[in-house]
Design brief:
Layout lengths: L1 H4 L20 H9 L8 H8 E3 L6 E3 L3 H9 L18 E7 L3 H13 L1 E4 L2 E4 L3 H13 L1 E3 L13 E3 L3 H13 L4 E4 L3 H10 L3 E3 L6 H6 L5 E4 L1 H4 L11 E4 L6 H9 L3 H6 L7 E7 L3 H23 L5
């Protein structure tokens, strides 16, 4: 892309999520516009100037002056347009459904949280670092955990074991409350998808057959299971429904926002519907689930501040 972008006399980039994971997302987008003139010739130069690392040495934390300096450098080539400033677009209605882990699952969760190691059904579960630990804890919060392979060199499908059905029962109740109205369900782990298909027989995935997107939009699919990483772009699902449920929560805000937007308020309005959008999120109480939800909300705050700063709308 850069080969042609830098040969062009004009380049226009469009994005609905310019800084979904924070200011660090901006360097690549600006580099295509100015070859690093504003934010640095390399990503390393960018991060060394405006960021520091967290206590793990992995995450990037903006320095106190980063927001003001970065936005000031970007403002001459960026502008923000929010459809809410021009049309009456309601925000999605967010409904958090809390569930409690059964005692056995809670014990497993606590052991993994404390020791980064646990045993389940005679098999080991190991987290080699903080990132792997958070993934294992989220798996446990959802209700199924991947096991360590019996042989280290094993590259086959990963085995998993179910540890509780609290979230599945909550989702089943939500499906009943929908009373036949279609529901989009976002999952993260393949084990969750398999469990959901077994527990909710009417559930389908986009890979089930050709034309599944069209079937959903016709209202023929009561529950459609989607992964935000693959379903977050290029799909128009607003005709099929106006409700989504996050069965599992994950750290990536951009994927979360994009999959919501498949049925989001703007798309509902474009399709001629005057109906609210419902975002349900099933959260396991006193687990990393709550941390993830809080974290993606704080990332959203950075993005909203950036969009407000860049706005060039004359009232």
């Amino acid at each position: 892309m850069a080969q042609y972008a830098h040969l062009s006399s004009r380049l226009i980039e469009l994005t609905g999520t310019p800084a979904s994971n924070g200011l660090k997302d901006l360097w690549g987008q600006l580099w295509f516009l100015d070859k690093g003139e504003r934010l640095g010739r390399t990503y390393t130069a960018f991060t060394e100037r405006w960021f520091t690392t967290d206590y793990n040495g992995y995450g990037l934390i903006p320095r106190p002056y980063a927001f003001d300096e970065i936005t000031a450098r970007c403002k001459d080539v960026c502008l923000s347009f929010n459809v809410e400033d021009w049309f009456d677009i309601a925000k999605p209605i967010v409904n958090t459904i809390y569930v409690d882990l059964p005692q056995a699952a809670r014990n497993l969760y606590k052991q993994m949280e404390r020791e980064m190691f646990a045993e389940l059904a005679g098999r080991e579960i190991t987290a080699v670092n903080a990132a792997a630990k958070s993934s294992k804890l989220l798996q446990c919060a959802n209700g199924a955990v991947y096991l360590d392979p019996l042989v280290e060199s094993d590259t086959g499908p990963k085995e998993w074991r179910g540890v509780h059905d609290a979230k599945i029962e909550a989702l089943q109740s939500l499906v009943e409350e929908q009373a036949g109205a279609p529901l989009l369900v976002a999952y993260h782990f393949k084990s969750d998808c398999a469990r959901l298909r077994a527990a909710i027989p009417v559930a389908r995935t986009l890979d089930d057959s050709a034309g599944m997107e069209q079937a959903w939009n016709r209202g023929n699919v009561p529950v459609l299971l989607v992964h935000p990483a693959s379903a977050g772009h290029g799909l128009n699902l607003q005709h099929g429904g106006n409700a989504i449920c996050f069965f599992g929560n994950w750290w990536n805000l951009e994927e979360r926002l994009q999959v919501i937007e498949r049925i989001g308020p703007v798309r509902q309005a474009q399709a001629g519907f005057k109906r609210p959008v419902f975002v349900h999120q099933i959260v396991a109480r006193d687990t990393v689930d709550e941390v993830v939800v809080d974290r993606v909300q704080s990332k959203g705050t950075v993005q909203e501040a950036l969009m407000q700063y860049m706005k060039r709308v004359k009232k």
